[in-house]
Write a structure and sequence with these properties.
Elements: H1 2-14, H2 22-43, H3 47-66, H4 70-90, H5 92-103, H6 106-112, H7 123-138, E1 143-147, H8 154-157, E2 161-166, H9 169-176, E3 186-190, E4 193-199, H10 215-226, E5 230-234, E6 241-245, E7 248-251, H11 255-264, H12 270-290
Parallel strand pairs: 1-3
Antiparallel strand pairs: 1-5, 2-4, 3-4, 5-6, 6-7
Length: 291
């Protein structure tokens, strides 16, 4: 027991504990946050399957190292640089999307986007879009309406025909009317104006989407995955209204719910939003009192 205490005392006396400064703690937290974000990103992309394959290869290399399989170790050393380049090429779409998501963070958007006191679009535009959507839903007219936020949609606008007209429910209904030149494709709304029609949108490859959804819904979800735009889909089969935003799809929305979704991306000052919310509550309370 005395020897054990003597050994432990010498070990403690000789133990070097580095001093940690505030900057060291901040650095550790930043690295931990970055590692966590990278792991979350890998988990939600095709890189997850690739990572599992890499882990299997690393285990195989470790076994080769233990048993001193020199030929295998030489092959690994020779192709490691090529393998890194190959992984970058394979993950190019995911890496591009990750960098785009980084640029979409609100911190950067607030720096590089001009401030608009009145919001991205007016309350009248919200009413016109909602009214047109439900008028088309009543008569089973399919529609695909893209409401632009901060991302540049020029590459999608180029696939369609320039319109450059003020948003109105009559205009949207006429565009999507059957057998008209502009009914096929999507409409892109920029601010209070319809910028383009008959635009082609990217289809989502999300395997979790219901098989009963058609190309129109998959195009709406695909657009919301690649950009920060909100996409309104009117089903030609059921007449129901759906909204795709940030890769998520909400189906069967009411007029009020659609207006709420559009208001949430309007980016108006908080005072205006609170005032509008109070006005809506007062109107609802007034209707209840009348009834």
């Amino acid at each position: 027991m005395d020897q054990l205490q003597y050994w432990f005392g010498n070990y403690v006396n000789n133990l070097h504990v580095p001093t940690a400064h505030v900057t060291d703690i901040i650095e550790i937290l930043i690295i931990a946050f970055l590692v966590y974000q990278i792991m979350v990103w890998i988990r939600n992309t095709r890189a997850w399957a690739l990572l599992k394959g890499v882990v299997v290869i690393l285990v195989f290399i470790f076994i080769a190292y233990i048993f001193e399989m020199q030929t295998i170790l030489w092959i690994v050393k020779s192709i490691v640089s090529i393998a890194v380049t190959g992984i970058i090429v394979v993950l190019q779409p995911e890496l591009r999307k990750a960098l785009e998501e980084l640029g979409k963070k609100k911190f950067f958007s607030d720096i590089f986007r001009d401030s608009e006191e009145g919001g991205l679009f007016s309350d009248k535009t919200i009413k016109e879009i909602a009214k047109a959507s439900f008028e088309m839903g009543k008569v089973r007219t399919g529609a695909l309406i893209v409401v632009k936020q901060n991302d540049n949609l020029a590459e999608f606008e180029r696939t369609g025909i320039e319109v450059d007209a003020i948003v109105s429910n009559q205009l949207l209904i006429n565009i999507f009317e059957h057998n008209t030149p502009l009914h096929d494709g999507a409409v892109i709304i920029d601010g209070d104006r319809v910028s383009s029609a008959t635009c082609y949108l990217p289809l989502s490859d999300n395997m979790m989407l219901s098989k009963e959804l058609g190309t129109r819904h998959r195009a709406g979800v695909g657009m919301s995955e690649e950009t920060d735009a909100m996409v309104i889909i009117v089903s030609e089969e059921t007449g129901k209204i759906s909204v795709a935003y940030k890769g998520n799809l909400e189906r069967g929305l009411s007029v009020e719910e659609l207006e709420e979704r559009l208001t949430s991306i309007q980016d108006k000052p908080d005072d205006d939003r609170k005032r509008k919310h109070r006005k809506g509550k007062d109107q609802k309370n007034g209707k209840k009192a009348d009834s």
